[in-house]
Amino acid sequence: MSQPILRLSLLLPALLLAMTLFAQNPTVRTLNGLVSGTATADGKVAIFKGVPFAMPPVGGLRWRAPLPPMSWEGTLECNKFAPSAVQQPPAPFFVWSEEFLIPKEPIGEDCLYLNVWSPSVAAASQKLPVIVWIHGGGFMSGGGACPIYDGEGMARKGVVFVSINYRLGVFGFLAHPELNRESGHNASGNYALLDMIEALKWVQQNIAAFGGNPNNVTIAGQSAGSFAVNSLVASPLAKGLFHRAIGESGGMFGDRSVGLYEASLEGIALVNKLKKYTIAELRSMPADTLLKYGGGFSPVIDGYVVPKDVHSIFAEGKQNDVTTLVGYNRDEGFVFGEPKTAEQFKADAKTTYGPLADEFLRAFPATDDAVAKQSQKNFFRDMAFAWQGYTWARMQSKTGQKKAWLYRFDRVPPGRPDLAEHGAFHSAEIAYALHSLPRWNRPWEPLDQQLSEQMSSYWANFAATGDPNGKGLPKWEAFNPAAPSALVYDKKTGMRPGLEQAEFTVLDKWKEASQPDLAKFEKKAFESNGEALLYRILYPDNYDPAKKYPLVLFLHGAGERGNDNEAQLVHGAKLFLKPENRRDFPAIVIFPQCPSNDAWHMGKADRSKQPVVRDFDYKREIAAPLRLAVDLTNSFIASGVADPDRVYVAGLSMGGMGTLEVVGRYPDLFAAAIPICGGGDVRAFGDAKRKLPVRLYHGAIDSVVDYKYSWEMYDSLKQMGWPVEYIEYPAVDHNSWDYAFAEKDFLAWLFSKKK
Question: What are the percentages of helix, strand and coil residues in the chain, rounded to 5?
Answer without folding.
Answer: 40, 20, 40
